[in-house]
Write a structure and sequence with these properties.
203 residues; mainly alpha; 8 helices
């Protein structure tokens, strides 16, 4: 019974990592990418999101609670899981280690990012605008922290997408897993490019 519960929790953990968290990550970076086209373009794109009905409820139930569940179970998995040299290759085991490391770092990064942005906006100290991120990233240390944070988050999502495809039965054969590896590598490169380009546009 306990094993069945853990199986269900891990399946839910994997699912939430892709839907809705992964989708939100990509959407968030795409919106940020409007900064490449100028301050007005970013403010307009961010303004559309801010004007969504029931925004607070959407943020709580579609973003924060799924992330909280994924993070708590993810930390448990990170500190209790063992690599499997029999079932997986040396390369895949290294990715497994990186998945744990980037998961912990991404959690720290998200907490700090939410504090600097959503919390400060909620307290009335800041407004959601180009200038908010411009001020944050004017500090070179914070710029590099954000660059590493985005790369960690995108890697965690991309590699987690591979695990999702395998564990949910979409990629069972070695050939299909190899294809998914290439697809998730492409996802990592494309989404990372979008995220880093967006960050540099604020500088």
């Amino acid at each position: 019974m306990a094993e069945h519960r853990e199986f269900v929790w891990r399946r839910l953990h994997s699912l939430l990592g892709v839907i809705p968290i992964g989708i939100f990550l990509v959407q968030h970076l795409v919106v940020n990418h409007f900064a490449v086209y100028g301050e007005e373009s970013f403010n307009a794109a961010a303004g559309v999101l801010e004007s969504l009905p029931f925004l607070l409820a959407l943020e709580i139930f579609v973003i924060y609670l799924p992330i909280l569940f994924h993070a708590i179970l993810g930390v448990y998995i990170a500190f209790t899981a063992r690599n499997n040299t029999v079932k997986y290759s040396f390369f895949r085991n290294w990715l497994f280690y990186l998945q744990r490391i980037t998961g912990v770092f991404t959690l720290i990064f998200i907490a700090w990012h939410v504090w600097e942005t959503r919390v400060q906006i909620g307290l009335g100290n800041e407004e959601l605008s180009f200038g908010l991120m411009e001020n944050i990233l004017s500090n070179p240390i914070m710029l590099w922290f954000y660059i590493v944070g985005v790369l960690a988050a995108v890697f965690h999502f991309s590699n987690g997408l591979w695990g999702f495809m395998v564990h949910w039965g979409f990629a069972q054969s070695p050939k299909s897993q190899k294809i998914v590896t290439y697809v998730t590598l492409a996802v990592f490169l494309v989404v990372s490019f979008i995220g880093i380009r967006a960050l540099l546009a604020f500088v």
